[in-house]
Specification:
Layout (H helix, E strand, L loop, with lengths): L2 E7 L3 H8 L2 H7 L3 E8 L2 E10 L2 E15 L3 E5 L4 E10 L2 E8 L1
Antiparallel strand pairs: 1-7, 2-3, 3-4, 4-5, 5-6, 6-7
């Protein structure tokens, strides 16, 4: 499975970077996120609750950040999947967020 996307956000990339590193904001942005906790400067622990048909299922896991470049982006991964997340200035007060999940 491969997912690529791009979003323009009406905020400076410093604000976008801060939001992407705030567990409370991340929890609000991830559908089904039950909890997300920063366990180290480069790791998060997360639990997601989803329904598969009529059955609710809880998934838990660790997310590890690497190649961290503050305000520019980072690579992140789970045991199985790797992804890249990058931000760039589009114009003053606006940022572009790109993701590449493989």
């Amino acid at each position: 499975m491969e997912m690529k996307g791009e979003e323009r956000i009406a905020a400076h990339r410093d604000a976008v970077w801060a939001a992407l590193n705030d567990p409370d904001i991340l929890k609000q942005c991830i559908p089904g996120c039950h909890s997300i906790t920063r366990t180290s400067p480069t790791e998060f622990s997360a639990a997601l609750k989803v329904k598969i048909g009529p059955i609710p299922v809880m998934f838990t896991g660790q997310i590890t950040l690497s190649n961290v470049q503050p305000t520019d982006g980072s690579d992140f991964g789970h045991r199985v999947r790797k992804a890249a997340l990058r931000s760039e200035i589009v114009r003053a007060g606006s940022a572009r967020l790109r993701n590449d999940l493989r």
